[in-house]
Amino acid sequence: MKEVVFRCPFGYPVVVESFPIKDGKPFPTLYWLTCPHLRKEVSRIESEGFIRKIEERISRDRNFYEKMKRAHIEIIKRREKLLPIGHPFREVLKRVGTGGIKDFSKLKCLHLHLADYLAGVENPVGKMIWDLIENKFCENGICKTGEAEK
């Protein structure tokens, strides 16, 4: 973990930024969703078939696809800033978007996109997922789905 980039109103980390190298290998996931409550909510949304539904929208809505492409490019640029010029992994990581996605019309998981959105990336899938979540944070700062550390 490099740093916390988004916290809930109770001060707990929700999204952390990772360094693009892990165990000596390229690590394309820049932002991680750490909040147990939101991870559970996103998993519920995934279980309702939203990955397929959103991929269908990407395939038929050119404007939505272009917005997704810009979000992936933003992630590529942010990762690139973390690696020195000439670093061998820069070229590898330039070819993949969030979470290592090569085909920008496909989704790996919705957690990645929500994490990007909460980290300030204009990710339309992340915004869509955020808008689907009714209770965005635990009540009274008490995490009901797992332990979180400040």
Walkthrough of the structure:
The protein is α+β, with helices and mostly antiparallel strands and 150 residues long. The strands form two sheets. It has a three-stranded antiparallel beta sheet with strand order 1-2-5. The chain contains six helices and five strands. β1 (3-7) and β2 form a beta hairpin. The chain has helices at residues 36-47, 50-60, 62-82, 89-94, 110-118, 124-132, and strands at residues 3-7, 13-17, 21-22, 25-26, 31-33. The longest helix has 21 residues, at 62-82. It is 45% helix and 11% strand. The chain has one domain. The two termini are 14 Å apart. The model has no long low-confidence stretch (mean pLDDT 91).
Mean pLDDT: 91
Number of helices: 6
Q: Looking across the biggest beta sheet, what order are the strands in? A: 1-2-5
- N to C succession of SSEs: EEEEEHHHHHH
Please give the oligomerization state of what you see.
Answer: single chain
Q: Can you count the beta strands?
A: 5
Model regions low in confidence, pLDDT < 50 over at least 5 residues: none
Distance between the termini: 14 Å
Estimate the helix proportion, in percent: 40-55%
From the helix content, strand content and strand pairing, which structural class follows?
A: alpha+beta
* C-alpha geometry: globular
Strand content: 5-15%
Describe the structure in brief.
The protein has a 3-stranded antiparallel β-sheet. The chain has a two-stranded antiparallel ribbon with strand order 3-4. 29% of the residues are buried. It has 6 helices and 5 strands.
